[in-house]
Specification:
The protein is of the alpha+beta class. The protein has helices at residues 7-21, 67-75, 111-114, 128-139, 193-204, 257-267, 321-332, and strands at residues 2-6, 26-32, 35-41, 47-54, 56-59, 61-66, 80-85, 89-94, 97-102, 122-127, 154-158, 161-167, 171-178, 180-182, 189-190, 208-214, 217-222, 225-230, 232-233, 251-256, 277-283, 286-293, 297-304, 307-310, 317-320, 337-342, 349-353, 362-365. The strands form 5 sheets. It has a 9-stranded antiparallel sheet with strand order 6-2-3-4-18-17-16-10-14. Strands 11-12-13-28-27-26-20-24 form an 8-stranded antiparallel sheet. Strands 5-1-7-8-9 form a 5-stranded antiparallel sheet. Strand 8 (89-94) and strand 9 form a beta hairpin.
């Protein structure tokens, strides 16, 4: 194999491949027909990335090398990079610098052949930046791998959008993604978290992404790359039965999401437990956040809400500051003002984007028990 291409073109491809395979993983390089193909598989062999770019190919060939090593080598180079395969090493050079990287017989699982995309799959075309935002806002509430049915992301179709939902039992995220959709996703199949981690950065730098879902595989395709993953088998819980209607909450508070998030972070520094339990009270148009610690002291922040309406609350609410802060940070991506739907002391707390268009994203956080 002998191929040449610019370092600033090759380095991003290798960075993405190394991130997926892990620093100690391997990457498969193949050159033919004026293209260099970079292929990587994650450690659990559930996600595969194929990325290609135009290159000057003198001699076709292929090899497997350490993903982290070849990435680090290319990142130090400037200008055109030459890749030349010998019997025992891959020579990587540019200008007066060169590296001799040991090749390996380590197999690279070819999911493309093992998991073909079947006809009749659900197909959706989405905006890359919007997809990256949606993925970032559902990753944080995916349940643990051992929790069957909660260990992945549920995909549904409705109102001209893909509906992405995840929950770990203590918090829930629901983010609609505008899309041109054909078909329906298969029941009992969930997107694996490893796919989200790999797809987010790719989608963020891609204008348009096509997603195809059909058991047992999900495929995402952008300009110059294809990402495939094995779907997880599991029945996602009927989340609509437990999610409260934010517009009917007895107490509804609208406030700047960023201000609420920053106040939570500050007050929770003095929370007495590992859950950073923070107390929320509402009086008139004032939202008070407070926490106390017998050893360190107490903290309180009073915020002026933009709007408060509903019944006069007769009790405070206790929340995990980290969970609610994450929900507010996600809501802030869609609008500056968040609406908290507050009910009984131990009822779920819903976070919406004030003035958001339907279908709109929302988050739900289970409260903590108070003093």
């Amino acid at each position: 194999m002998q191929v040449s291409l610019p370092a600033d073109v090759l380095a991003p491809l290798l960075t993405r491949a190394a991130a997926l395979s892990g620093g100690s993983g391997h990457v498969h390089l193949s050159a033919q027909n004026s293209l260099l193909l970079v292929r990587a598989v994650d450690g659990q062999a559930t996600v595969q990335l194929d990325a290609e770019t135009a290159a000057a190919v003198t001699t076709a060939g292929e090899c497997v090398v350490s993903a982290g090593t070849v990435r680090d080598a290319v990142k130090t180079l400037r200008g055109p990079v030459a890749l030349r395969l010998t019997k025992t090493a891959l020579k990587v050079s540019a200008g007066g610098a060169s590296f001799g990287l040991r090749v390996t017989e380590e197999p690279v699982l070819r999911l493309r052949e093992a998991l073909p995309t079947a006809p009749g799959a659900m197909l959706a075309d989405v905006d890359g930046a919007a997809l990256a935002t949606a993925l970032a806002c559902v990753r944080g509430t995916v349940g643990e791998a051992v929790r069957h049915g909660l260990n992945g992301i549920c995909v549904e179709v409705g109102d001209g959008a893909l509906l992405l939902t995840s929950t770990d039992g203590t918090a829930l995220s629901h983010v609609p993604l505008a899309a041109q959709v054909q078909g329906q996703p298969p029941r009992g199949q969930l997107l694996p978290p490893a796919l989200l981690a790999a797809l987010g950065p790719l989608a963020a730098s891609t204008a348009d992404v096509r997603i195809v879902v059909d058991a047992p595989v999900v495929e995402a395709r952008g300009a110059g790359w294809v990402l495939r993953a094995r779907l997880l088998v599991g029945e996602f819980p009927d989340w609509r039965r437990v999610v409260p209607d934010g517009t009917r909450a007895p107490v509804q508070v609208q406030a700047r999401a960023g201000a609420l998030r920053e106040a939570l972070a500050a007050v929770s520094l003095l929370a007495a437990d590992k859950h950073h339990t923070t107390r929320i009270t509402v009086s008139g148009d004032t939202v008070a956040l407070s926490a106390s610690n017998a050893d360190a002291g107490d903290a309180r922040v009073d915020l002026q809400a933009e709007d408060v309406h509903g019944e006069k609350p007769g009790h405070p609410w206790h929340v995990n500051a980290s969970l609610l802060g994450t929900a507010l940070a996600c809501a802030e991506r869609f609008g500056p003002v968040a609406r908290l739907g507050l009910d009984e002391a131990l009822a779920p707390i819903r976070v919406d984007v004030a003035g958001g268009k339907e279908p709109a994203p929302f988050w739900v956080v289970m409260p903590m028990r108070g003093d």
